[in-house]
Amino acid sequence: MALRAVAVAGALLLLVVVGSSAAGAGSGSCQTRCGDVDIPYPFGIGPNCSRGVGFEIECNTRNGSGDLVPTLAATSLSIQVQNLSVESPPMAKVMLPVAYKCYDDPTKTQDFNGEVELNKTGVYRISDELNMLVVLGCNTMVYTKNGNSEGGLYSYLYYTGCIAYCNDSRSAQDGKCAGAGCCHVDIPGGLTDNTLVFDSWNRTKQVDFSPCDYAFLVAKEEYVFQRSDLNKDLNRTMPVWLDWAIRDDDSACPPLALGKKPPAGSYACVSDNSECVNSTNGPGYFCSFKLIFYIRVNFTKLHVF
C-alpha cells in the first residue's frame, strides 16, 4: 500500500475582536507627540485638535534645556504630563507638587499647600486606586479636603489624612512608613484637586533633624520612604495617576435599545465599533473601541491511502 500526502490549498478566515479605547479624529495636521510623550485624541495640541478645553495639552520648552515638555493646559498651575493613555481604563500620569511647611526653631518661616485645581473643566479625577497620601515629618498631621458638601454636617465631602511623629532623630527608618517620620493613607474617590492642610505641634526639639513637614499625593508603586526625605528639597513634584472621562454636563452612557445607534450631538461614542463605558471615579464615560480585523490562515490537509 502506497502512502501519499496530498496538499489541499485552503483558507480559514478568523474574525478577531480586540477591546481598546476609541481613537479620535483630530485633524491630520495636529501634532501627535510632545517630547517623548504621545498625544492621542481626545487630547490634542493647538486649536481644534482636542475634544475640548479640558483635553488641551501645551507643548513648550523646559526652562533653559530646550526639551519639549507637555503640560495640562486648563489647570491652575503648569502640570507636567508623563503619559496619556486611551486604553481602558483611561489614565493620565502627571507630576503634582509637594506641599511643605518649614520652621526655624520653631517659628514657621515658609509654607505651600500644594494647591492645584484639576477640575476646572471636569475631565480629571485623582485615582483613588493607584495613589496614596504621604506625610513626612515629626509631630505633624496633614489632611486633604475636597468637594462642597452643600449644607452637610461638614464643609467638604471628603477628608483624609494621617499623623507622623518622632521620639528622636533615630525614630524614622528607611523603608518604613507607619507613623515614625512617615505615614501614608489611601484616598477616597472623587478627588478633584490637590490641596493639603497642615496641623502641627511644638517643634522645638525636632527642628535640627526635621526642619520641614511635607505632604504629597503619589503613585503607590513609585514611593518608598527614606530617612533622608525628612530633609527633602522644596519645590519638588511627585508622579500621580489621574482618571479621565468625558464629563459633559455630568454625562453618562445613554440607555440604548438593541440595534439602535447612539444619539446625535455631543455624544462621543459614534463609531459602530465603539462601546460606551461609565466612569468608576465620578460622573462621565469613555469609549471602548473594538478593532475588527481578519487573519487568513493557510493549511494543508493530509490524505492517507
TrEMBL record:
Q: How does it sit in the membrane?
A: Single-pass membrane protein
Entry keywords, A to Z: Signal
Q: Name one GO molecular function term.
A: polysaccharide binding
Signal sequence segment: 1-22
Every copy of the Wall-associated receptor kinase galacturonan-binding domain together lies at 30-88
Spell out the GO cellular component terms annotated for this protein, sorted alphabetically and separated by semicolons.
membrane
Give the highest taxon in the source lineage: Eukaryota
- Subcellular location field: Membrane
Name used for this protein in its record:
Wall-associated receptor kinase galacturonan-binding domain-containing protein
Tell me what organism the protein belongs to. Oryza glumipatula
